[in-house]
Amino acid sequence: MGGRHARNLARHVAHAEVEAVMDVDLERAAQVAAECGQAQVFNDAEALIYNPNVDAVIIASPDPTHARLTLACLAAGKPVLCEKPLATSAAEALEVVRAEEALGRRLVQVGFMREYDPAHRALLDPTVQEQIGRPLLFHGLHTNLSIGVDRTVEDVIVNSAIHDIHSARWLLNDEVSEVFVQYIPASVDAPETCRLLLVHMRMSRGGLAVIECNVDAGYGYEVSVTLTGERGTATTQSLSSPVVRGAHGASQAVEADWLARFDEAYIREVQAWTQSVLDGKPAGPSAWDGYAALVIADACIQSARRRERVKIDKVT
Question: What pLDDT was estimated at residue 255?
Fold first, then answer.
């Protein structure tokens, strides 16, 4: 993921320069650096963050390092785009929120890139909103190819479904008040694993959200959203490829992974983030959004373990 961000900055952002790249695999870091104009190579993240030639930072390291490195960026006073999740727990994410509040200015953006996906953004078009009326239900479908290794239900929630959790908050413009999670294990002998997750969420103003997350679909990667309103519905296209008709049939290619499906969204994300840094006007998903998503994710994990509904107090 870090390599994709670096290449997008180098190739698609006119006012950005990739100054430095860090990876514990120095050979890999050197390869990415060479592709991005001979950037400096680091094997220490904090050395990169505090380097005086670095104005802003993108964090795409393993999840357990996200909060610590984001806090380092805040201590250095540098804008940061941190991949999701912001942290490994809501409590850890709250530390980031409090540290940013103590600075008195916003520096953190979280990588919920679906906010930059044209298909998702179209749902908020005033014409669409006028036609469907007040949204009542968010239905998110999220399908992944198997990665070849059984995943725990906690991992599926925090690393996959968290995107859909954020999308529900964003598109319904509301907070979650209750969750109920059901899932199907990868095998009967491994009840802690998950191949298909179903999340039911009640929103604070009475709306509903349903997330279906299949992480072992076997055929490809798809993401779609249907908003049901008081007067109609609106559905995003799940694929970006064209439908080809011919020889008495029709077909459509299914992307292999999220990098192909959301290629344009990732480009737009770094373009918008860079512009916000240049303008000094932070935009996009905030540290608070990262924290709120993890509060909901933690509740989902509790629900999955207890097999019962879990209420969520107002996020403060």
Answer: 82
- Report the C-alpha gap between 48 and 244 in whole angstroms: 47
Site of tokens 């064209």: 242
pTM, entire model? 0.93
The predicted pLDDT at position 107 comes to 98
The rounded Cα 192 to chain-centroid distance in angstroms is 24
> Domains in the chain, ordered, with CATH?
2-113+265-285 (3.40.50.720), 118-260+299-311 (3.30.360.10)
| Residues 6 or more apart whose Cβ sits within 8 Å of residue 98 | none
148-206 pLDDT tens trace: 889 999 999 999 999 999 999 999 999 999 999 999 999 889 999 999 999 999 999 99
Distance CA 148, CA 283 (A): 37
- Residues 274 and 16: their CA atoms lie apart, in Å, by 7
Alpha-carbon distance of 213 to 168, in angstroms, equals 14
List the chain residues with pLDDT less than 70: 316
Strand 249-252 to 310-311 pairing: unpaired
Residue 45 contacts residue 72 (beta carbons within 8 Å): yes
124-152 CB burial, b ≥16 within 10 A, e <16 = eeeeeeeebeebbbbbbbbbbbeeeebbb
Three-state DSSP state, 142: strand
